[in-house]
Amino acid sequence: MSETPAEFGRRRFLLAATAVTVAGSLSVTGQASAADAGRAAGRPGPVRRAGRLVRSRSVGPFEVTPLLDASGPFFLDRQQAFPAATPQDWELARTVDPGAFGPGETWNLDFRCFAIRGPRDRLTLVDAGVGPADGPASGWAPVPGRLPAELDLAGISPEDVDTVVLTHLHEDHFGWSVGPDGTPMFPNARYVVQQREVAALAAGQAAMTYVVNPLRATGQLDEADGAGRLATAGRGAGGWIGVVPTPGHTPGHQSVVVDGGGGQIIVTGDVLVHAVQLVDPGVGYRFEADPEAARRSRQWLLAHARARGAVLATAHLTRPWTDVD
Questions:
Q1: DSSP state, residue 298
Q2: H or E element, residue 240
Q3: What string of DSSP letters covers 173-185?
Q4: For the whole model, what pTM was predicted?
Q5: Does the pLDDT of residue 237 top 80, yes or no?
Q6: Residues with Cβ < 8 Å from 198, sequence gap 6 or more?
Q7: Predicted pLDDT of residue 14
Q8: How far is CA 2 from the centre of its chain?
């Protein structure tokens, strides 16, 4: 199994602001535009919550809101992180996500979660960020994250969240799942993770001791076995939220599909870590547990998104939305 960022070296990120412009055949879209007006899936809409503009997208009866927990440059140069990428790959990736490119060979990334609001005010949170200053990601990620403040700005109380989907059990995706004492941050939620992901953990790993064991103790851990639907919009509304296995980055990695009845938003997790993997899905990431499985998952996800006209909601690109043409 490949090493994780935490195992490779406990080095901190430096916080950095990033900026993105839209270019290339794969476009990253933020606010609403005339070109998006007729799209059946992923219609963007600026939503005013708690005095701040939150860039959300709607698909059918669901509203998906990005929540930026943290951002900063990675501790490895981009060629070390993506060793198979060619100069041509980097050139095209820069047109897709220029904000990911720092000085020299450095690269920037965001750490992003997504809230999905459905009918009857049902709330699903996808991933839980880097966590507090003393959490498991503190040795290498830009902690503390700001997810609690982002939820507040989006008008979401932790008590209102009924489902938390953890795409995988790396420290930068489960950080706010529980508090320092093991108390679940979202007391009324079930936490959905794939059985294969849990089974691959060693007894002393941070994911087991910090997240899995406390959630098992409260009865809130929901171990999924493959693809499945988590929620439906209800009679007459159409649409559903589901998980689909996308292994490779970790053994039990999963992505989230938000189907609005006429279009989809796919929350990718770490199937995609950098835009270079959009322009060439064959480019692997250094910290993939199974690079060949990760490549197959990327190729499948991108082919599915193109066939369905789906919008990708990404955790680590420097803007949340990617329209795959």
A1: H
A2: strand 240-245
A3: HHTTSB-TTS-BS
A4: 0.85
A5: no
A6: 169, 208, 212, 221, 223, 252
A7: 30
A8: 20
